[in-house]
Write a structure and sequence with these properties.
single chain; TIM Barrel; alpha/beta; 308 residues; globular
Length: 308
Amino acid sequence: MAIFRSRHRPSPVDSGATAAVVNDRVRYAHLELIPTPKAHLQFPELPDASTVSVTCSPAKDIEATLDMAAQLLDLGHTVIPHLAARMVEGHDHVARIAAWLNDHGVGDAFIIGGDAPEPHGPYVDAAGLITALLDSNANLTNVGFGGYPDGHATIPLAALADALNDKQQLLDAAGVGGWVSTQMCFDTKAVTRWISASRSAGLHLPIHLGIPGVIDTTKLLTMGAKLGIGASLRYLRKNRAVVSKLAAPGGYDPMDMLAPMAPDFDALGIAALHVFTFNQVANTVAWRNAVIGEQEPIDTNTSALTRG
């Protein structure tokens, strides 16, 4: 079984303030789950009072996202539902979503354009749905949206930069907080360049750094093929070198991204980690617990990571 394993090599996060920064981000990482029929089997693996981000994809409707979010709320977790603009049918649907958010006391939402081939209503991008929700009675306090250090398959770079600025301005004008969550990208230099350039262009919102967790690579790609879950897996399918790196023994370790970037987390405004678990929570949580010192280092033969 191909998983991401620790290579037990020295890391610049092993001492001092940098280690404290990484441990803080790992401890409070947001864990992403996909609302599949068996997703509930992952719930017992979540740390108590986790922040869980619940995706929205063309394979499921928004109600599936909200239903799973409600289950997680009942278990004492904080939830961030993803809302895909192209899957919202119109004003009445926005009103129902706003009512759900208010009834469940959910003030944070992550808004994306979505991968539906044809929009179900008048909203074709995240900005359109953000505007509609801000104009509704939704008691939103923070709205997240996507950032693309590697670009987007169908949107030019200049348009992505304009959209980033436009969405930030929408939130600023409404007095609502927000964040930018980056797509999964394995090139730390590219991510750092993108954040630095965006900051120079006026981005002031905090960044949530998107990283994959500890994942069985075969299951990752199989799930992606079945669910079509967006840019993260499109990136993997189109980049064979990355897939080879993930599948190779001693390949990718989440610390490969965190260690080189950690000294600049505060300067870059990286406030949180967004961990793509692809519904394989146990291994990622075992890695998290080892990093933050909540358990003894785990033997990698048990399909989990030890602290680097």
